[in-house]
TrEMBL record:
Biased composition (Low complexity): 354-371, 382-396
Gene Ontology molecular function: peptidyl-prolyl cis-trans isomerase activity
Lineage summary: Eukaryota, Viridiplantae, Streptophyta, Embryophyta, Tracheophyta
GO biological process: protein folding
UniProt-recorded name of the protein: Uncharacterized protein
């Protein structure tokens, strides 16, 4: 039996281990090896080094200077970044594991798959044991050759990061020949309007700040664009009471004069200067990270990054859920904007909660009908097309055994995921062919680490358990597209068994990141909620979940947590 002192010592050991395993720096790892100096340099130039440093359980496939020189001589930086992203595997492989691959071949997720730019299965890599001591690497796209081989081990921090040398670049079809977008030709306002940031787009045009943004692009530019809903939120200052110079400073405050992708933001510790910065400590932002969520702090307000509009070297545009108010302009409480007129059309209300007010299901012997539970749903607070609440899909810490996240699911007939929870593992088959868009969203979120460390926030015995909200409140989460997406209701997919995997929603076509697993048949949900998978192993874990006691709002009293997700190309894979 553990004593309290032993428990404290055990927890301290775990915390020290976590600190030790999290501390790696790919630049420093490669520094003693001059043969990888060019590869190391391009990791820095593309900011992939920050993305690698923000992750755990990862493998970097390094190229020596000769191989890297041949690649870099022919392609722009944005294409090189995509290519090198394909050389970062979201799983740990050392020499021993490479030569012990189950059945001699496997598919593994890469960092490129988490970007949302990988079509089909271009974002994951085929690793095959060729026998005779050789291991081949190639694109997982059909017909692709194993054009690269394992040369040697470079450096390992066991089960955290592994660096291996391979003979030549892994080439995915079309990746190197795709036209690289020219930063000078990017239509910033069109991108903002499409992302639901029309007010912000209008302001930068009317004030002339757009021209300042455009002139900064070539050297690097990052924008934090508030959604239209953010400008309408309570407490937002009345911009008409600001001088033109103050409005310009406010808009400049939403931009950085550097290419700063999400991975770089995650590793940022010091205050960040903005385009509005005019002196030491003036108009700065600070950045914090909690799991997948990246939050910006102005000193007056905090704002989460909700989604990525574009990430193409040297330009990044993110959507944020609050207007950033600098202390230099709003050190005191800002004057509130005039209250909007009452809205006559009601906003969608959450599904009725089947909690304490609903009678318990009657036993079969009783003739009283069981209550019809509506499935859980996050409240709908923004219209279709505006950025959804919750952090974006590009993030960290997922492991992937065989396949990948942002896969166009219709090209892969069978995939599965294992949800590694604190109560045990649950393996689910994903209906890629029948619900391709939903599967694509779910797998990409899994691959990016979006669900890692999240909790199941609602649990109703005999009905379902719900999770997928990184805020843990039931009100957050977003899709990989940064907005709600449409239902995929199929006659062949029904809530007809225990262990059905479905999307939670707040009405038709309002899917984001939240999902639920049924504890029993729920035929009344058919046609209303998108079924996209089913549990195939781990029903005993589902039993434990169902028995967990709950409190107000059907929230589990003992935390049920999803530690990480493993993705399999074959549902029957281990």
């Amino acid at each position: 039996m553990f004593t309290m002192g032993a428990v404290h010592l055990f927890l301290l050991s775990l915390s020290l281990l976590a600190i030790a395993t999290a501390a790696h720096n790919i630049t420093e790892i490669l520094l003693p090896f001059p043969e990888y100096s060019l590869f190391n340099s391009y990791l820095t130039q593309t900011k992939l080094d920050d993305e690698i440093n923000s992750r755990q359980t990862i493998t970097v496939l390094a190229l020596d200077n000769a191989a890297m020189s041949a690649l870099a001589a022919k392609h722009p930086l944005s294409v090189i970044k995509n290519e090198l992203s394909l050389h970062v595997l979201l799983d740990y492989y050392d020499s021993q594991k490479l030569h012990q691959i189950s059945k001699g071949t496997t598919l593994t997720t890469t960092l490129y798959q988490t970007t949302g730019d990988a079509a089909g299965n271009l974002g994951f890599v085929n690793i095959t044991d060729l026998r005779g001591g050789k291991v081949g690497f190639g694109s997982a796209a059909p017909g692709s050759a194993l054009n690269s081989t394992y040369n040697k081990s470079v450096k390992q921090v066991p089960y955290n990061i592994s660096v291996l040398e391979i003979s030549q670049p892994i080439i995915a079809p079309g990746l190197l020949t795709a036209a690289a977008p020219s930063a000078s030709n990017v239509n910033i306002t069109a991108l903002l309007e499409k992302a639901g940031c029309k007010i912000f787009a209008s302001l930068i045009m009317s004030t002339g700040v757009l021209k300042e943004y455009q002139s900064a692009i070539d050297k690097g530019l990052t924008l934090f664009a508030p959604s239209d809903e953010a400008f309408k939120a309570p407490g937002i200052p009345d911009l008409s009471k600001l001088t033109n110079a103050e409005v310009v400073s406010l808009l400049q405050y939403h931009a950085l004069a550097s290419y700063t992708p999400i991975g770089t933001l995650k590793t940022t510790k010091d205050p960040v200067s903005t385009l509005a910065t005019n002196g030491a400590g003036k108009f700065d932002l600070t950045v914090t990270t909690a799991g997948d969520s990246v939050t910006l702090h102005s000193g007056v307000v905090s704002s989460r990054i909700a989604g990525t509009v574009i990430d193409s070297t040297p330009l990044c545009i993110f959507t944020v859920d609050n207007v950033l108010l600098p202390t230099e302009l709003f050190g005191k409480s800002p004057s509130p904007a005039p209250a909007p007129e009452p809205v006559t059309s009601p906003s969608p209300s959450p599904s009725p909660a089947p909690a304490a007010t609903a009678p318990s299901p009657a036993p079969k012997a009783a003739k009283a009908p069981s209550p019809v539970y509506s499935p859980p749903a996050p409240p709908m607070s923004s219209p279709e097309g505006s950025p959804a609440e919750g952090p974006g899909a590009e993030s960290e810490n997922s492991t992937s055994e065989n396949a990948a996240g942002d896969v166009k699911a219709s090209s892969v007939h069978k995939m599965a995921v294992t949800l590694h929870t604190n109560l045990g593992d649950i393996k689910c088959e994903i209906s890629c062919d029948e619900a391709p868009k939903t599967a694509e969203n779910f797998l990409a979120l899994c691959a990016s680490g979006y669900y890692d460390g999240t909790i199941f926030h609602r649990n109703i015995k005999g009905f379902m358990i719900q999770g997928g909200d990184p805020t843990g409140t039931g009100k957050g989460g977003t899709s990989i597209w940064g907005k709600k997406f449409n239902d995929e209701i199929r006659e062949s997919l029904k809530h007809n068994a225990r262990g059905i995997l479905s999307m939670a929603n707040s009405g038709p076509n309002t899917n984001g990141s939240q999902f639920f697993i049924s504890y029993a048949k729920q035929p009344h949900l058919n046609g209303l909620y998108t079924v996209f998978g089913k549990v195939i192993h781990g029903f005993e874990v589902l039993d434990i979940m169902e028995k967990t006691q709950t409190g107000p709002g059907d929230r589990p009293l003992a935390e049920i947590r999803m530690n990480r997700v493993t993705i399999h190309a074959n549902p029957l894979a281990g």
